[in-house]
Amino acid sequence: MKKNWKVIAVSAGGVLVLAVLVVLALNRSGAPSESDALVDVPQEDTTVLLYGIDVGKYDLAENTVEFGETIGQIFGRYGVGPGLVDQIARKSEPVFSLRGIKAGQKYTTFQTKDSAARLAYFVYEASMTDYLVFDLSGDSVRVYMDTKNVTVKRRMKTATITSSLWNCMIDNGMSPMLAMDLSDIYAWSIDFFGIQEGDNFTVIYDQKYVDTVEIGHGTIWGARFEHGGKNYYAIPFMQDGKVSYWNEQGQSLRKNLLKAPLKYSRISSRFSASRLHPILRIRRPHYGVDYAAPSGTPVVAVGDGVVIAKGYGGGGGNTLKIKHNSGQLVSGYLHLKGYAKGINKGTRVRQGQLIGYVGATGLATGPHLDFRLWRNGTPIDPLKVPTEPAEPVRAANKQAFDGVRDRIMAELNGTLADSLKVTSFAPAADTSRAANPDSVKQTPAR
Question: Which of 83, 242, 386, 424 has its CA 20 to 30 A from that of 315?
Answer without folding.
Answer: 386
